[in-house]
TrEMBL record:
Any GO molecular function: methyltransferase activity
Species of origin: Kribbella jejuensis
GO-annotated biological processes: methylation
Keywords annotated in UniProt: Methyltransferase, Transferase
Official protein name in the record: S-adenosyl methyltransferase
């Protein structure tokens, strides 16, 4: 696992190692090694407060693969993935290029650790293309205007905008609904919003405790109800089955096995997910 003592002082400051980072905490939940003591400590505190975090992370990842596959099967060949996280195989481009080898995928994240591992995101099939930019979801115009996006994304054609497991780190004061609206605005008719968000709906007391400990560790977060998550899809038409728990969105055989074993439940996953199509 990564150790903050191995980081040079300049990079230490850039990595913000005095507080946990969502991408590195998520990496820890998925069993990765690209995280630091501050992230592991925050993750373990979260697990004590709410034991379902590893299950939620896994179900979220598996759902993202199904949603990305769905988008590719609908004929979408351009993907903009914001809040990519630390590369974990299969990555989004590997999923969609199995269906559409010529697909273009642009990844964006604000953690320098993700940038350090971005080579894994750039190994595209010869027919397709991928790019990575270090950017923050709180600056939609910076993302949309980036050279990487301009080069790989044609806004006159449908785009799949993937924002998976990101917005529960954005409290209301950061105007999250407006951020999604700005990102959707330039996208062509037929574009898809692929979106997931943690919810306290199934275990409010556990989640209240989890938010307290995460904030005490220096993190920022706000979980939201189904009604609040559904608002993110304003301006789109929800694809059936709508906003649901991840394991209920077109489950594949592997997902159904987790459900049968009692590992994927509403409480243990505690996520709302959905796909909306821009009219």
């Amino acid at each position: 696992m990564a150790d903050s003592q191995d980081v040079d002082p300049g990079m230490y400051e850039k990595l913000n190692l005095d507080r946990p980072h969502p991408a590195r905490v998520y990496d820890y939940f998925l069993g990765g090694k690209d995280n630091f003591e501050v992230d592991r400590q925050a993750a373990e505190h979260l697990l004590k407060a709410f034991p379902g975090f590893r299950t939620a992370a896994l179900s979220n990842r598996m759902w993202m693969h199904r949603a990305a596959k769905y988008a590719a099967e609908q004929g979408i060949t351009q993907f903009l993935d914001i809040g990519t996280g630390i590369p974990t195989e299969p990555n989004l481009h590997e999923v969609v290029q199995e269906i559409v080898p010529s697909a273009h995928v642009v990844y964006a994240d604000n953690d320098p650790i993700v940038l350090a591992h971005s080579r894994a995101l750039l190994v595209s099939k010869p027919e397709g293309r991928t790019a990575y930019l270090e950017a923050d979801v709180t600056d939609p115009q910076g993302i949309l205007g980036a050279d990487e996006v301009k080069e790989l994304i044609d806004f006159s054609k449908p785009v799949a905008l993937s924002i998976v497991g990101v917005f529960h780190y954005l409290p209301d004061h950061l105007q999250p609904y407006d951020l999604v609206r700005q990102l959707l605005e330039p996208l062509a008719s037929g574009s898809l919003l692929i979106f997931s968000h943690c919810t306290p709906d199934f275990a409010p007391e556990l989640w209240e405790r989890a938010m307290v400990v995460y904030k005490a560790d220096g993190g920022e977060a706000q979980v939201r109800s189904k009604e609040e998550v559904t608002r993110f899809f304003d301006g789109t038409e929800l694809v059936e089955p709508g906003v649901v728990s991840p394991f209920r969105w077109f489950p594949d055989e592997e997902t159904e096995q987790y459900v049968e074993r009692g590992e994927f439940t509403d409480i243990m996953c505690s996520l709302w997910v959905g796909v909306g199509r821009k009219p």
